[in-house]
Amino acid sequence: MLLRPATSPAFSLLAAGDTTSIRLFPATYRNSTGIVVVKAAAKSSSSANSKPLTGVIFEPFEEVKKELSMVPNVPQISLARQKYADECESAINEQINVEYNVSYVYHAMFAYFDRDNVALKGLAKFFKESSEEEREHAEKLMEYQNKRGGKVKLQSILMPLSEFDHAEKGDALYAMELALSLEKLTNEKLLNLHHVAEKNKDVQLQEFVEGEFLSEQVEAIKKISEYVAQLRRVGKGHGVWHFDQMLLHEGAAA
């Protein structure tokens, strides 16, 4: 049965330099399967454009049938998951483990510099904040995993070092060089995660990694590189104490 067309046009097209307008009026009817079909027919003020427009068909219910059939009924399966590859899910879980391992090492550094016989409070503060930041990154990845319909699978965390003194470099420089290596390793792992997303054509995951992690990682590498350069200049003596005081009051000054 043909339904009466709507009185308002769907859209109008005005040719450049011409006053002739083409208005498309939608016509709706039900096909043999009972599905509502919308077609557009042309109505023109010029005989040159009096031919009906063909090929404009909008069948929303036909198009959604496939997605509707894929909605899971099993409670253990995510309802939100869409175009999220298993490889991307595994890569996210691996990155969560990287962030937690780096956080664990930074926490060990905090504990070392907070000892009464080391007493470098600025370095202790810096590494404690670094540990918290890496843990926040892990939690952000966990939230994203759940958002995409994946499953978070936490892996084992390795026991870190508990002593950071070095005969030639001293503890401050050695720990900061280790921190620089950890930040570069984390950045390498993030780039690998981005590559996995790109390989699986997961544009949203690529955007997430770029927007939430990569810029921040580059800035962290630059900052810690400067700290390493400064500690190499001051040596192992009194200069380390001044550097430590700078870190201790850095937040307050800002």
UniProtKB/TrEMBL annotation:
One of its GO terms (biological process) is intracellular iron ion homeostasis. InterPro entries: Ferritin, Ferritin-like, Ferritin-like_diiron, Ferritin-like_SF, Ferritin_DPS_dom. GO terms for molecular function: ferric iron binding; ferrous iron binding; ferroxidase activity. Residues 82-235 form the Ferritin-like diiron domain. GO terms for cellular component: chloroplast. It is found in: Plastid, Chloroplast. It catalyses: 4 Fe(2+) + O2 + 4 H(+) = 4 Fe(3+) + 2 H2O. Oligomer of 24 subunits. There are two types of subunits: L (light) chain and H (heavy) chain. The major chain can be light or heavy, depending on the species and tissue type. The functional molecule forms a roughly spherical shell with a diameter of 12 nm and contains a central cavity into which the insoluble mineral iron core is deposited. Belongs to the ferritin family. This is Ferritin. It comes from Saponaria officinalis (Common soapwort).
